Amino acid sequence: xxxxxxxxxxxxxxxxxxxxxxxxxxxxxxxxxxxxxxxxxxxxxxxxxxxxxxxxxxxxxxxxxxxxxxxxxxxxxxxxxxx
Length: 83
Prior knowledge:
- By secondary structure, the protein is an all-alpha fold.
- It contains 5 helices and no strands.
- 4% of the residues are buried.
């Protein structure tokens, strides 16, 4: 938290012409709590589970061909690249 991941991710995505997806924002939206509140109220194991669930969840704007199969987190990152 507070290490500059969003800033660096946004700048890198811009340079690579990729769309930036903020995982922390997705976690907060999913849990209905801010990251510090998740740790405080639910604990780190719950945070890590929500994080893993969001990494496995379909990412917005992704198109799939044929049947959808779950992607690894790296597969999701590659698929988020803009054409």
